[in-house]
Amino acid sequence: MSNSNPQCICIWEDKEVCKDCSLHGRLHCHLNLKYTIIFSIPFLIAFIPSFVGLILLGYPLNLISILTWIGYIIFFFLIWEPRILCAHCPYYAEGDAKFLHCSINYGFFKTAKFKPEPANLWEKIQFLIGVILIFLIPAVFLIIEQKWIFLGICAFGAVLWFIIIQLKICTDCINFSCILNRVPKEIRDEFIKKNKVMYNAWKESGYDFD
Each residue of 38-96: pLDDT tens digit? Predict the structure, then answer.
């Protein structure tokens, strides 16, 4: 058992092993710039116009809104989300790494410990609330000052982001605890069975394998 893979999760083994895996190419098991681009572009379509719209608000509302939004984003991605979602992901199981090496949150400091068990219902609800707040916070300030064009672009970007990740990312993602995950059950089960620590934790939680 190596320091880099204390949980013996397969994605942290030598990539040569993956060539003979029946799931090779069917799941997002390794760092891939394609997923970063697909995730980031529609998110930025919502983020950038929203940020510009907040800057254009009257003082001091512009300062208050920007500090509130950026502060929340930092809190969500570095403190809240890791504990309720990211820690359940195999990418979080890289033992000696201080920073994440996944395609979505690459470079983020790891602020939680790996949880091999599936997320519970309350964690999933918290994640949904957290994501909604990312888009809702700027929307509220934009509505207050009636910045309708910026609000419309923000809403468009948020909807576009959701549709694209559901079609292009959530279908391959190995964080099966995410409420947005759309990996077919037979593929999910096969991956979990390959990883004993996850298999035991999911089985103990009451999850039924096919």
Answer: 999 999 999 999 999 999 999 999 999 999 999 999 999 999 999 999 999 999 999 88
Measuring CA to CA, which residue among 76, 55, 75, 52 is closest to residue 64? Answer: 55
Whole-model pTM?
A: 0.91
Helices 61-75 and 121-144, packing angle to 10 deg: 160
What are the φ and ψ backbone dihedral angles of 194, each rounded to 5 degrees? -75, -15
Residue given tokens 């895996």 in the structure block: 21
HEC letters along 78-92: HHHHHHHCHHHCHHH
Distance (Å, whole) CA 36 – CA 33:
5
57 within 8 A of 141, measured Cβ to Cβ: yes
Domain ranges of the chain: 10-204
